[in-house]
Design a protein that fits this description.
The chain is α/β, with parallel strands linked by helices and 424 residues long. The chain is built from ten helices and 15 strands.
Length: 424
């Protein structure tokens, strides 16, 4: 029995806009690089397929965004499939919540090597040199708001039971993402009896189970700062050990543009030129680690430490000036852009809750709120309740989460420290 090898990709979001890019960063060069990033990721996916010559490629949904109605994206996908067809590589496409079946261009003529899964589970045999290699099961989202547990529609094909069988699905497993998109559980996937699952929807690469092999490939290109690090696809090889199929996989980076968040320690720094030097050092280290496949780095920098410059660094114009001073780094490879600077520094005051002044009282109160969640909740409700109970505001606002409230408490403590320190 032949051991199958396949490439698993998902969430290409071709031609989707990048989110959170300020006007100050919107240079023609960066705009061009970001506009082409998802298409470069698709090209790199085809390059990988031509190098490795897998038995087939699966793309598990959200290949493009129906919201943008991008003809460019759908025709680029067709062109990529034609390219793979010339290498005799079958392509299996499942549609997700961003590109449901209803959003497809019916005027596109798809090459013969392409299978587009419909609104019901279908099973397709992959053959090489007259020999069965694998069975690929899959289904697409018929509409954007698919709340049915589609995984329960999958079942192992008993007639071809000895062969490797893969499921392709765009789904949120065990509530891993906001929104009710074809939700299922890990036990649902395992109950199907399939040997592996190629999943889409979660943009972060993750292996949920080794046996059976259940994995998210993650997105091919990160679209905002909350999708940091390399983004790409999985190359998966399966072998039969006599009792079951065992899969081994390799992650391949595809996205040319990368988001990162990093910290810069400014503890006891009291000169602006030293701040600039430390920022350049931190950014240089990130660029050195990025790898040759990264063409663009977009970085959020978080400033930490106790410094006399705390008040100045919190000013928006000061952060913008520092970013502008480092704009020359965009000319390198990778081109390095500062998305924003988040100041989490503190003034160099003595953080001693036992001190006998107003600041000491504030520090004691903050500590008591941290250690007594009930007291914290009561105070937050009293302070914020009227706003969120307002007839109009309550319809558009959600009460802050516990993590957000803790962050607000920390910010309030820092501000009080800056303004109430008697020795300054």
């Amino acid at each position: 029995m032949r051991s199958p090898h396949y490439i698993h990709a998902a969430d290409l979001h071709l031609d989707a806009p990048f989110l959170g890019i300020s006007q100050s960063l919107q240079t023609p060069r960066l705009a061009r690089q970001l506009r082409e990033a998802s298409f470069i990721a698709l090209k790199r996916l085809c390059d990988l397929c031509e190098r490795e010559k897998p038995d087939f490629l699966v793309i598990a949904g959200d290949i493009y965004n129906q919201e943008t109605h991008s003809i460019k994206a759908q025709l680029a996908l067709r062109d990529a499939c034609e390219r793979l067809g010339r290498s005799a590589i079958p392509v299996f496409l499942a549609h997700g919540n961003h590109d449901p079946l209803s959003s497809r261009l019916t005027a596109v003529r798809w090459p013969e090597n392409v299978v587009i899964f419909g609104s019901e589970v279908s099973v397709h045999t992959v053959r090489r040199e007259g020999e069965t290699v694998a069975l690929v099961h899959g289904i697409s989202h018929e509409k954007a708001e698919e709340n049915q547990n589609l995984s329960r529609l999958f079942t192992r094909d008993a007639e071809f039971s000895k062969y490797f069988q893969l499921g392709v699905l765009h789904t949120a497993v065990d509530g891993q993402a906001a929104g009710n998109y074809a939700p299922c559980s890990l036990s649902d996937l395992k109950a199907s009896g399939l040997d592996a699952w190629a999943l889409g929807h979660i943009h972060k690469y993750a292996v949920l189970s080794q046996r059976p092999f259940i994995a998210y490939s993650g997105s091919a290109q990160g679209l905002h700062v909350n999708e940091p690090g390399p983004r790409g696809c999985l190359s998966v090889s399966a072998r039969h050990n006599g009792a079951e199929w065992v899969c081994e996989h390799v992650f391949h980076s595809l996205g040319p543009a990368r988001w990162e968040e990093t910290e810069c320690d400014l503890d006891r720094v009291d000169k602006l030129d030293e701040v600039e030097a430390r920022l350049a050092e931190v950014l240089g280290a990130i660029a050195a680690e990025a790898g040759s496949d990264c063409e663009v780095l977009i970085v959020r920098i978080v400033l930490r430490g106790r410094t006399e410059l705390d008040g100045l660094l919190r000013r928006k114009n000061a952060q913008e000036d520092l970013a502008a001073r480092l704009r020359h780094l965009a000319e390198g490879r990778p081109g390095l852009w500062i998305k924003d600077i988040c100041c989490r520094t503190q003034a160099p005051y003595e953080k001693n809750p036992s001190r006998d002044d107003i600041l000491g009282e504030v520090l004691r109160l903050a500590e008591s709120l941290r250690t007594d969640p009930g007291k914290f909740d009561k105070l937050a409700e009293a302070a914020l309740g009227p706003l969120y109970a307002h007839r109009r505001a309550g319809k558009i606002l959600s009460f802050p989460s516990r993590d957000m409230l803790r962050s607000l408490l920390q910010e309030a403590e820092i501000l009080c420290g800056e303004n109430l320190e008697t020795d300054r």
